[in-house]
Amino acid sequence: MAKNKNKLRQQLEAYLSIEKIKLVPNSFDVVGHIAILEFPDELKKEKKIIAKVLLDVHSNIKTVLEKCSERKGTYRNREYKFLAGLRKFETLHKEYGCVFKLNPTKVYFSPRELTERQRVAEQVKPRERVLVMFSGVGPYGIIIAKRQPATEVVCVEINKAAVAYAKENVRLNKLNNVKNYCGDARKICPRLGKFDRIIMPLPLGAENFLDVAFACSQKNTVVHFYNWGEEVDNTLFANGLAALRAAAKQAKKKIKILKKKRVLPYAPRKSKVCIDFVVSGKAGVAKFGQRRRTRKKK
């Protein structure tokens, strides 16, 4: 990639000034055959020529889109502008031996989270029952199900287009241990029973569903709770921890924090974070890993 980046800049010397070339993005997202770039205002007139040169440099890229908005709405979608290549927005994206069919203009998908998805999947043990809330096109569920064929994975997503792709991705990956449900997680999840592991990969809004996660948990359920944090004065996890502790108190649950992790940048001076915790029982019982002390009879 570094070699291609230098080649891109070299090719652009025929069209742009050195000052403009310095403003060209150093990195961009690639989803299947689609490259997604974000440009500074100073490159407003040069976007299409940069996109065309990018197609020449990267043979695997066939379509170039410009990111025109942040994620918004219930479906967490972005607005994009077509810049160059094929007007084909449905693609096949490969990740850790899995394949995902999707259209990034219609569904949420972040190629930058592949390492995080793998980190969580590696923790899942055989025969666990796993719930993935806000599951999108199914990347977490499919990677887990493929690593652990004996595991039951249940995915819940509100976007009908994403659920359609998720079901197709289950078929493409030849899996029989993944179930997909379309609808509001608040209404659907409580009807699905208890789980050994719950994944909540939604940085803005997942805290509003912690009560649902607690309702679907049992003793020793592990939860991967995603939130956002400001990178100021060591308060990166403050928002998530405050929301988690308030929800646990409301649900009368005892919890134990297992890990706090910065996942990736979310916005200027903000990052997506993950707080892994275990539900250790109901409030008023001994904490996870501790035993009640009893007096010996004399």
In a nutshell, what does this entry contain?
The protein is α/β, with parallel strands linked by helices and 298 residues long.
Can you walk through the features of this model?
It is a single chain. The protein has 298 residues and is of the alpha/beta class. It folds into 2 domains: 2-89, Met-10+ protein-like domains (GMP Synthetase, Chain A, domain 3); 109-282, Rossmann fold, CATH 3.40.50. 27% of the residues lie in helices and 29% in strands. The protein has 9 helices and 13 strands. The strands form 3 sheets. It has a 7-stranded mixed β-sheet, with helices on both faces. It has a 4-stranded mixed β-sheet with strand order 1-2-3-4. Helix 1 (2-12) crosses helix 3 (47-57) and helix 4 crosses helix 5 (139-147). The radius of gyration is 22 Å and the shape is globular. The relative contact order is 0.09. The model is unreliable at 285-298 (pLDDT under 50).
